[in-house]
């Protein structure tokens, strides 16, 4: 029975792009050992769904050296024979992919862009260049790269095979789920038969049609829309500029919206907005799409249609990202319209957020309470992304009446006055969402840290990601400016007993103390950490600031404990170290290193 | 949001507003109002004030209709 599944080894350099359509790699089904043994296996972490989010999570766990099982119902990346789904990857996602070791391949294959232009009729009414925005140009990664989603997924599959630690099982479909206080139990169907698996933690990364919401009775907040689109992935004899062009009212699409974006392999993604009551099959016929393309690019333009298909979107968000042992991730947690690239990129950050927390718990560095912060942080991000994309959806598909009236007002004003142009909303590009209500972030934290560069003591170039790699799943403490002898000793005591690595960041001539140090002559690293002057910044493995402070004292100890979800235990430890009965002075003027490890 | 009179010349503004709508169809009038709201909102800019202004406009007097 297994013979019908083509046996394809992991291979580098596969080409999806030969001829019309995409040829996707196929991966080998291996009979799970449980089927032969008849035993139910038990695993600490089981990820269901080897899409962008599931693969990112598995790869991140592998980098931390944490084992997991990854189940996928299919035997390929992408959707078989279908178009790429996601195409546009943010700086934050690219920084994460750099840490995972697949960024170079993405950069080599994908297309960088930073300029977006919006047109109404023939007039350009709004444009932006992300490279001119100071918040984008400090990272080692560009603002955006466009690439077909299945390339990234394919790179991750191969990277996972290199790293090990991941039991990746193709053609394994979860058909039933239950959980209790002891474990979760998954029933899994394969071409070789059915088996059961127990798990401590289950991650649902199965996408928008997840069965887990039903199994768990997870409530969902949803908003209905009637916007319809037709996607055309094409290759041209003409070469439009490498920019994101959007038309709100395109004369060549009966005054409806059009999107134009470049991907890898010289394939352009053209999205056409359709009438809400259109016949999806009719509007996405290749002959109909060719007529539309001819109206846009001229009848003399030779083109090859790689893929066409109708498209509609929903807006949904689960109310809780964690249900007992199950964590919702990516599209399983929330579905948004595609405007602003807030779908797949959010899934990548979901995965990066949960990966280090699971790893820290598995390695005994953090309390299980840390896992609750996944919901707090990523649900805030999901809600923000749902809100932002819903606003864009309303602008692009206004209902008759006031919604259409105010859009007409804005578009007409934008043609005449610069002030009105930023109101034209064809999508607000995804950002790394800040966390404002996380129990493990201090009020001074919750901000993302870009992958900025610095110099190692020998003058060679390094980046934040290098230091995160060195910290290897521990927290990373940056101390800016000079350090007194007492502070150095206190810092040593803290790093010896807590899951933390510390590095001093010096400007020009400041003398480095007796800990690891790097040079930040332009202050980029300090700026990326959102602090000024003499300060410390506690950075998490997902490159978010947990807390910032000024002096090396009990506030730092508290911050470390809080970031690891072990606030109470750490406060106890800090209290013992600095308690009056040990003769220490009040914390604020503490100048002695801790007398003994608690 | 201000609760006190702030116009330099309120009667003149009111007159100009009515004149701007003269001879317009209902649709043209609606568009003029919508454009004017966007222009004025940009002049105000302040998010809190704008929110209060929208809320104030939504609250009709409790009794006696208009």
What does this 3D model show about the protein?
The complex is a heterodimer of chains A (598) and B (66). By secondary structure, chain A is α+β, with helices and mostly antiparallel strands. Chain A has 16 helices and 28 strands. In chain A, strand 1, helix 2 and strand 2 form a beta-alpha-beta unit. In chain A, helix 2 runs parallel beside helix 9 (344-362) and helix 9 packs antiparallel against helix 10 (372-396). Helix content of chain B is 65%, strand content 0%. Chain B is globular and about 35 Å long. Chain A binds chain B through residues 405-406, 408-410, 412-413, 417, 419-420, 423, and chain B through 30-31, 34-35, 37-39, 42.
| First-residue to last-residue Cα separation of chain A | 60 Å
Overall helicity of chain B: 55-70%
Shape of chain A: globular
Q: Which percent bin holds the helix content of chain A? A: 25-40%
List segments of chain A where confidence is low: pLDDT < 50 over at least 5 consecutive residues. Answer: 1-19, 575-598
Rg of chain B, nearest Å: 14 Å
Radius of gyration of chain A: 26 Å
On the 0-100 scale, what is the average pLDDT of chain A? 87
Tally of helical runs of chain A? 16
Structural class of chain A: alpha+beta
pLDDT under 50 segments of chain B (min length 5)?
A: none
Number of strands of chain B: 0
Shape of chain B: globular
The percent range for strand residues of chain A is 25-35%
> Strand-and-helix sequence of chain B, N→C?
HHH
The mean pLDDT of chain B is: 95
Topology record:
The complex is a heterodimer of chains A (598) and B (66).
Chain A: H1 33-37, E1 41-48, H2 52-63, E2 68-71, E3 88-90, H3 91-100, H4 103-109, E4 111-113, E5 115-120, E6 123-129, E7 144-146, H5 149-163, E8 166-169, E9 173-179, E10 184-190, E11 193-204, H6 212-216, E12 220-223, E13 228-236, E14 244-250, E15 256-262, E16 268-274, H7 280-283, H8 286-297, E17 303-312, E18 315-318, E19 322-323, E20 326-328, E21 334-335, H9 344-362, H10 372-396, H11 402-416, E22 453-455, E23 461-463, H12 464-471, E24 475-480, H13 485-497, E25 500-506, E26 517-519, H14 524-528, E27 535-539, E28 545-549, H15 554-563, H16 567-578
Parallel strand pairs in A: 1-2, 1-11, 2-8, 5-14, 11-20, 24-25, 25-26
Antiparallel strand pairs in A: 3-7, 4-7, 5-6, 9-10, 10-11, 12-18, 13-16, 13-17, 14-15, 15-16, 18-21, 19-20, 22-23, 24-27, 27-28
Helix pairs in contact in A: 2-5, 2-9, 9-10, 15-16
Chain B: H1 10-21, H2 26-44, H3 47-58
């Amino acid at each position: 029975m297994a013979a019908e599944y083509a046996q394809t080894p992991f291979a580098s350099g596969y080409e999806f792009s030969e001829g019309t359509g995409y040829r996707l790699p196929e991966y080998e089904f291996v009979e799970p050992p449980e089927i032969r043994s008849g035993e139910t296996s038990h695993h600490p972490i089981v990820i269901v769904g080897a899409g962008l989010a599931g693969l990112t999570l598995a790869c991140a766990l592998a980098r931390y050296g944490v084992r997991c099982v990854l189940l996928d119902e299919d035997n390929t990346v992408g959707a078989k024979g279908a178009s790429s789904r996601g195409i546009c990857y943010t700086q934050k996602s690219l920084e994460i992919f750099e840490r995972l070791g697949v960024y170079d391949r993405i950069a080599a294959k994908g297309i960088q862009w930073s300029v977006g232009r919006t047109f109404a009729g023939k007039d350009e009414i709004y444009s932006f260049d992300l490279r001119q925005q100071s918040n984008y140009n400090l990272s080692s990664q560009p603002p955006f790269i466009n690439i077909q989603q299945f390339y990234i997924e394919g790179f991750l599959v191969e990277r996972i095979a290199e790293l090990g630690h991941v039991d990746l099982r193709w053609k394994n479909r979860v058909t039933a789920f239950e959980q209790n206080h002891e474990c979760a139990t998954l029933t899994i169907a394969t071409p070789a038969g059915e088996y059961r698996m127990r798990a401590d933690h289950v991650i649902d990364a199965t996408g928008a049609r997840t069965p887990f919401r039903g199994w768990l009775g997870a409530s969902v907040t949803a908003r209905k829309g009637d916007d319809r689109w037709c996607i055309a992935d094409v290759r041209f004899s003409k070469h439009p500029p490498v920019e994101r062009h959007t038309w709100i009212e395109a004369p060549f699409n009966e005054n409806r919206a059009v999107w134009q974006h470049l991907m890898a392999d010289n394939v352009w993604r053209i999205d056409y907005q359709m009438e809400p009551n259109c016949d999806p099959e009719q509007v996405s016929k290749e002959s109909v799409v060719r007529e539309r393309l001819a109206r846009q690019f001229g009848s003399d333009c030779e083109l090859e249609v790689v893929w066409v298909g109708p498209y509609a979107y929903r807006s949904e968000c689960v109310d809780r990202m964690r249900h007992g042992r199950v964590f919702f991730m990516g599209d399983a947690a929330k579905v948004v319209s595609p405007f602003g690239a807030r779908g797949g990129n959010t899934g990548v950050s979901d995965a990066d957020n949960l990966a280090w927390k699971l790893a820290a718990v598995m390695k005994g560095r953090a309390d299980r309470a840390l896992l609750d912060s996944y919901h707090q942080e990523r649900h805030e991000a999901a809600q923000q992304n749902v809100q932002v994309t819903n606003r864009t959806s309303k602008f692009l598909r206004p209902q008759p009446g006031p919604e259409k009236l105010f859009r007409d007002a804005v578009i007409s004003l934008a043609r005449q006055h610069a002030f009105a142009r930023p109101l034209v909303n064809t999508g607000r590009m995804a950002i790394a969402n800040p966390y404002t209500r996380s129990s493990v972030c201090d009020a001074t934290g919750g901000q993302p840290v870009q992958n900025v560069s610095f110099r190692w003591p020998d003058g060679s170039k390094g980046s934040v990601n290098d230091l995160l790699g060195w910290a290897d799943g521990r927290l990373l403490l940056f101390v800016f400016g000079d350090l007194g002898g007492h502070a150095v000793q206190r810092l040593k005591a803290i790093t010896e007993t807590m899951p933390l690595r510390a590095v001093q960041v010096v400007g020009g001539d400041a003398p480095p103390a007796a800990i690891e140090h790097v040079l930040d002559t332009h202050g980029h690293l300090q700026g990326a950490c959102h602090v000024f002057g003499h300060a410390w910044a506690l950075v998490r493995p997902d490159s978010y600031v947990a807390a910032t402070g000024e002096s090396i004292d009990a506030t730092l100890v508290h911050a470390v404990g809080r970031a690891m979800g072990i606030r109470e235990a750490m406060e106890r430890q800090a209290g013992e170290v600095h308690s009056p009965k040990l003769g220490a002075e009040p914390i604020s003027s503490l100048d002695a290193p801790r007398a003994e490890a608690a | 949001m201000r609760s006190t009179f702030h116009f330099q010349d309120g009667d003149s503004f009111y007159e100009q507003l009515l004149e701007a709508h003269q001879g317009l169809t209902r649709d043209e009038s609606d568009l003029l109002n919508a454009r004017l709201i966007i222009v004025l909102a940009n002049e105000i800019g302040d998010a809190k004030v704008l929110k209060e202004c929208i809320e104030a406009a939504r609250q009709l007097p409790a009794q006696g209709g208009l």
